[in-house]
């Protein structure tokens, strides 16, 4: 297992993990038609933009030289509400199903938090669907639920929760 900063060459691998992990994670939560139409090439364009953003921190985790997960984060996008008081945000964290439960997620968060601390970011948020059992991962890392919202995905209204963290590197 190896964690490193993502490069422009990782665009396709990240897009592939993104689509695969969405399909396994959100089956039964997000409408099946929406999941079926997810395309790696569309996500590639999204990640090309992300990887070109100097203020974006993106890390990948590899197993046997193959990317099996990633995390992306940066400045908090919230403009109002309690969540806007936090400085940073995890935009996305996804591992392939077979790479989950091995501690990689915790290590990816730590890599991002190291970057945040170097940039003087001392708090962060993450949004997660209330129906996603992975939200317990954020609770395990010490996140506190600070807000709730509604998001429309593929025509279905879903509740999402926002977790807030005060960053103390030793605690992660
Ligand atoms: C969420 C995710 C990034 C966590 O990474 P991971 O490598 O699987 O988690 P770790 O092995 O580092 O687990 C850390 C702790 O969180 C707990 N945890 C992780 N996922 C959990 C889950 N789904 N349910 C309950 N607890 C969970 C682990 O049990 C572990 O607790 P412990 O320290 O007491 O053993 C990963 O499982 C994943 O990609 N899930 C699918 C995609 C997803 O939901 N992404 C988040 C979208 S907002």
TrEMBL record:
Pfam families recorded: FR47
GO molecular function: acyltransferase activity, transferring groups other than amino-acyl groups
Superkingdom: Bacteria
InterPro entries in the cross-refs: Acyl_CoA_acyltransferase (IPR016181), GCN5-like_dom (IPR013653), GNAT_dom (IPR000182), MshD_Acetyltransferase (IPR050276)
Key word Transferase present: yes
Gene3D superfamilies per record: 3.40.630.30
Residue ranges of every copy of the N-acetyltransferase domain listed in the record: 1-159
CDD domains according to UniProt: NAT_SF
Keyword Repeat among record annotations: no
Coiled coil ranges: none
This protein's UniProt keywords: Transferase
Stored PANTHER family: HISTONE ACETYLTRANSFERASE (PTHR43617:SF30), L-AMINO ACID N-ACETYLTRANSFERASE (PTHR43617)
Protein name: Putative acetyltransferase
């Amino acid at each position: 297992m190896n964690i490193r900063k993502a490069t422009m060459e990782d665009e396709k691998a990240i897009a592939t993990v993104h689509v695969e992990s969405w399909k396994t994670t959100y089956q039964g939560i997000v409408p099946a038609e929406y999941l079926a139409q997810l395309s790696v090439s569309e996500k590639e364009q999204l990640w090309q933009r992300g990887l070109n953003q100097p203020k974006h921190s993106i890390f990948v985790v590899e197993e046997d030289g193959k990317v099996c997960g990633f995390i992306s984060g940066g400045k908090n996008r919230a403009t109002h509400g309690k969540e806007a008081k936090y400085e940073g945000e995890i935009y996305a964290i996804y591992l392939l199903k077979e790479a989950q439960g091995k501690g990689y997620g915790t290590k990816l968060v730590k890599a991002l938090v190291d970057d945040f601390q170097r940039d003087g970011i001392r708090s962060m948020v993450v949004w997660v669907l209330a129906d996603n059992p992975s939200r317990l991962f954020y609770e395990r890392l010490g996140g506190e639920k600070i807000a709730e919202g509604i998001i429309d995905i593929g025509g279905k209204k879903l509740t999402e929760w926002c977790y807030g963290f005060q960053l103390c590197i030793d605690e992660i």
